[in-house]
């Protein structure tokens, strides 16, 4: 469930509800006749898209004229008269396809996207009904059917919406990899406005810090105990089967546009089998992420983590890096060269956890945990990794150890104070103490490390983290055993 935008606000007597637009997706189950109609409509919308793109390109090359959306939209009635087979398509759906081209050019002119290119049919997903015309849905949020009145179709659909309200738009989507059709609705729903800081009823005393890793997917600390979740390794578990079926697919006739070769039926069958396995891995990872984030969000009010650049973490090994050979360039003291094979294994471990998606889920569920508590109003604090350096900082004295940055160094011993702790647990403890302003060290206050909260994009009157700091009360944390002795990490850090 994805929150797209807040369309309009209508407060009740308590002033805590508003209308939000959410996207809900259902899978379609068309019969053979409906399937032919859907593929035909998809092919016609793809033709309209490419025709509009060609028109803009021709106008610019011949007349140095930049066509606008309304220039092409006004030609649609004449185009439908000259091409009667397109008359079956709804006018608003055709206008949405033309608008799609215009939005692509707007993004290009702003420097957000590359120049729009002609789309082959395999890369054209579907079309949109931007209004109420041309379609109607019959459902209460669980299964039902959808009518595409311009095509004369009534298609059964299955799925369960997290929230259901008034449907406003409809997008028909085809996924070639799985050969499946979907209906994606935008729905206006009444939602409870999340409250933060001084406006919230929460005490903000239950805090949890978590560190995302590879060997250990998640290491958490809530002031009393650590909890470690192992990496599920969904990719690794299915890797061999995917490789086997991919090898079988390569032995069959694949499509080749340069040689004008069409794929064989056996290649399509093998490709579908590979896609099914990859989709299974994705679903397993998503289900695991939802389970752990729902559990954490239901028990804690504040989550604390570090900002990770997952895209950079999963990049390829540097050119020239081979097994047993150091990387091209100077070798830093205290680090070991990493091979291409090792980097590929590290990337798989990162992708198995799904770090980026995990943080996004945590933000959503702490802010508006509709799965457990409506309008909970929890917070997620994201600390700047470069300034805080939790994996290199001693939780006891705050000293920075640069050689701790090496991933092979899994157990940290501070040469200044003698404090000993595991790598992931140490990072988690540093983040937890920083959130409570109890972490020793210079320049690690929340203001100094550029803390970013999940409320940064909300209205100013919802409360701020500064207000939260004034409101919350921290309870004395329980002692934990370190080297067989009872130690309180918070008190130890304070001195």
Topology, element by element:
Layout: E1 2-8, E2 17-29, H1 32-63, H2 69-73, H3 76-82, H4 91-109, E3 126-129, E4 135-138, E5 142-148, E6 153-160, E7 166-175, E8 180-192, E9 207-212, E10 216-221, E11 226-230, H5 234-250, H6 265-299, E12 302-306, H7 310-313, H8 340-353, H9 355-367, E13 379-383, H10 385-388, E14 411-413, E15 420-422, H11 423-435, E16 452-453, H12 465-471, E17 480-482, E18 485-487, H13 489-494
Parallel strand pairs: 9-12, 12-13
Antiparallel strand pairs: 1-2, 2-6, 2-8, 3-7, 4-5, 5-6, 7-8, 9-10, 10-11, 13-16, 14-15, 17-18
Walkthrough of the structure:
- The chain is elongated and about 85 Å long.
- Strand 10 (216-221) and strand 11 (226-230) form a beta hairpin.
- It has 495 residues and is an alpha+beta fold.
- The two termini are 46 Å apart.
- The protein is 36% helix and 22% strand.
- Strands 1, 2, 3, 4, 5, 6, 7 and 8 form an eight-stranded antiparallel beta sheet that branches.
- It is built from 13 helices and 18 strands.
- Helix 5 (234-250) packs antiparallel against helix 6 and helix 6 crosses helix 9.
- It has two domains: 2-192, no CATH class; 197-494, no CATH class.
- Residues 1-15, 320-336, 346-354, 367-375 and 458-495 have low confidence and may be disordered.
Unreliable stretches, pLDDT < 50, 5 or more residues? Answer: 1-15, 320-336, 346-354, 367-375, 458-495
- Overall structural class, as computed from helix and strand content, comes to alpha+beta
- The coarse overall form would be elongated
How much of the sequence is in beta strands? Answer: 15-25%
Mind describing the biggest β-sheet?
A: 8 strands, antiparallel
